[in-house]
Amino acid sequence: MRLFGLIGYPLGHSFSQRFFTEKFAREHITDARYELFPLPNIRDLPLLLAAQPDLCGLNVTIPHKESVMPWLDALDETARQVGAVNCIRLQNGRLTGYNTDVYGFEKYLLPTAFMVALPPDIPFRAFILGTGGAAKAVAYVLRKRNIPYQFVSRQPTAGQIGYAELPPLLSAGPALLVNTTPLGTFPVVEAMPPVPVDYLGPEHLAFDLVYNPPETLFLRQARACGSAVQNGLEMLHLQAERAWKIWNDHE
Hints:
Layout lengths: L1 E7 L7 H11 L5 E7 L6 H7 L3 E6 L13 E2 L1 H6 L4 E5 L2 E5 L2 H13 L11 E5 L3 H12 L4 E4 L7 E2 L4 H6 L3 E5 L24 E5 L8 H8 L3 E3 L2 H15 L4
Parallel strand pairs: 1-2, 1-3, 4-6, 7-8, 7-10, 8-9, 10-11, 11-12
Antiparallel strand pairs: 3-5, 5-6
Helix pairs in contact: 4-5, 4-8
């Protein structure tokens, strides 16, 4: 039986196993199963592969989307440009990395942003909360769409800004805020990035790539300020279906 799974740490919040298990049952896929493989250290990846010879594909989540790359034999062009991997195909002993976060964000979360009517003379900009692998995928899509963006970090380095710099920027006009950090993920549901929510309003859109819980503290506070909000569950579904297509591509 073909084996697929998810690596990362921790994995108690993940819906991936449930998604694929339900997909296999719904679509009568009887030759596949999906497991969670908590992997505190990416250096243990070869041990996992040796212990699970039936593995045909892996999803990758925090904190390994970037650190897994040196362990792969090849990269899809999108993954190479993004600088992060969240999907691995195992075929003939070779590991090829892909990035399906890009697909999920572009196909669902980003179009949702443009459903909000904005005056044509007002520039639309984005603030990416976090600087990890998921943040890189979001930035890749924003560049494709020619949307100006800035990375926001609690410890900003060159080219990034801190959260204390957000108030005047949020006051300047419409903006998209995308939380790519794990803050607010179950079970630590009362955490959130230190966004100055008093400066949020109806002209802002708050997206959270976290999907468990369905409404994070960040989204709850943004909604209370009149902002449009969206979680990452549909993005999970889209990127998972994309991964399944990659794993089953016979070309």
